[in-house]
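## Example record

The block below lists the input lines for one assembly entry, exactly as stored, with component labels intact.
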Amino acid sequence: MSDHDKKQESHKPGETTRNDLFVLELCFLIFLLAVVTVAFFEATTYKIVSSRTPFVIMVPLWILLVVQIIRSARTSGDQTLWHRAMRALRGRNTNFRKINSLAGWIVALGVTIQIFGHYIGIASFMFVIMWLVAKQKLMTSVLVTLVTTGVIYLLFEHGFSIELYRGMFFRYLAGYRVF
Amino acid sequence: MTIIEGMTSGFLQSISLGVIPYLAIGSVFGLVIGIIPGLGGHFAMAMAVTFLYTMEPGAGIAFLLGAHATVAQGGGLTAILFSTPGTGQNAATLLDGPPMRDNGRAGVAVGAAMASCFLGATFGAIVLACLIPFLRDVVLVFGPPEIFVLAFLALTFVAVLGKEDLIRSLIAALAGMLLAMIGLDNVTNTERFTMGSMSLSDGLSLVPVILGLFAVAEMFELWAKGGALARGVEKPLSARETQRQIFEGIGLAFRNWWLVVRCSAIGTGMGLIPGLGSAPAAFVAYGHAKQTSKSPDTFGKGNVEGVIGPEAANDAVEGGALASTIAFGIPGSSSMAILLSGLFILGLETGPRMLNQNLDIVFIMIFTIIIGNLIGTLIGMFLVNPMSRATSIKSEFMVPVLMAIIITGAYATDRSMFDIGVTIFFGIIGLVMKILNYSRSALLIGFVLGFAVEKNLYLALLLKGPFFFMQPLPLALTLFTIAFLAYNIVLIIRHRRSAASPLTARKPNP
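Predicted structure tokens for the full assembly:
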């Protein structure tokens, strides 16, 4: 850890949280500002009938975003945006790390559902989160996984007559070649 | 359909075998969700919406409102027993509920809270029923120009009166409206902001957005907290003693009927104003109960009136909030926005059509609120101890199980993998908004109102021309919106100046 890092870590916890929030808000606002700006230029290519409502919304939104960025920057501490963002990305912010890890597993769940189908996807997701990530007992994890998957199967397939996605692999085996 | 016909049909449908099981399941579901700290009414409704697709309108409404009606009851229970409000609206109950528990009167507080919830909800529902003849006439005065301006007024109320920062709430509301613009424009058939994606050409579906903002975001937060959902849990009373005390508490709620009526009136009145929500109503009711009490000194030390007042106001809010949602299609809270989405899914339209042709549906809502709360009270009376154990479930189990259900619900909406991606994306956005104090309710209300705003803007321009807002009623509403916003901005600036002033900032001499 560099001297600069050590100096930053020695700050009070409340101050650290405030600075982390500032960085998070700035990133969020910049993301929104970029999206609104791109959408604004995109809207200029539409007929006026289609673009007038988006313009009515986007102009005040753009102004409010700029105002909020200025407000946040004024109340920020002495932390640099880059330093805080890197600290979070390196996993030194516990909450950020935990949320990031869950978000990663959820994305993996989406990919698994796409390839192997809904039931295999949700069952493997639940089991991995309970047993591997949260270090719960094997039997409890297996039991909760099987019961939940069974209940979802009965509820959706038989209760609501909704066939959940079987996955590309199953579809390939069933003879589909167009996905 | 006359009011008597609507009322009779609504009542018969509410107690029919096609509806009552859904109402009972919804009520139990809401009660359990309410008990779990961190999961509120909007979470219960977001989860309930995913099951609506295969239901008949009556059953769907009963399920949805049943789930919503009992959340406050469950939240009151945990606020009293574990000093952990299951939902934000039960925060006022913390002032006198836990002291009653510490005095060995936990059951009395729970009984009084549950009975007050039921009485408050019944009061709110009756007021809503009484408002129907009036609303039927008023709603006819509101054409496209009025609805367009009213939508902006409602968004201003949500942004100003919400607990979040004004600018942040306005950003959220406008961002929500912008999200509603994604997809095919109904007038010119132009694809807007779809980035060439076929999945976006129909626009963003409501359910994945709702699930992401309110359900996935809560899951992220629970996961980050970790451990059991309620910490520092006190040992509950024995089952027999709890039962005895609960009946005593119910008796106290009925004995304080005048306080219940007054606090319910406060709740219903505040529910009519978009954006206020249940939590401020509960605190105002608490203040009123204290002011009018014969023993105000005992408030905060375990006075049952301090539990009865806020809990009655909590549930009475729904009657008022439903009025503006049903009549104008303008939701005042995130829960009402989700209800509105649920009505869309069930193929129902709010406004004059609902108040004239589908009046039975309105009465199903009214009876659902009453019966749902009654079911919640009955279940709560007998199952307080076992149900309160839901708080000891570890988030390590709850999060993956609920996430699996959420993802399944998101897919089942349109049977689209794309919707799973939308849910995850809005889950992350919802979490960031929650952490940064941006109003998710404002975003959702903006999103729901976006469709209505654009449709009514087209119609207003077509019918009245570009100066449609110069008509008497739209002009009055526009001026009121501007004045309300300006007044609150001035208040904020004054408050900041006084806080920054060296005279006020200086510490007083010892």
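Chain A touches chain B through 59 residues (CB under 8 Å). The first helix of chain A runs from residue 3 to 9.
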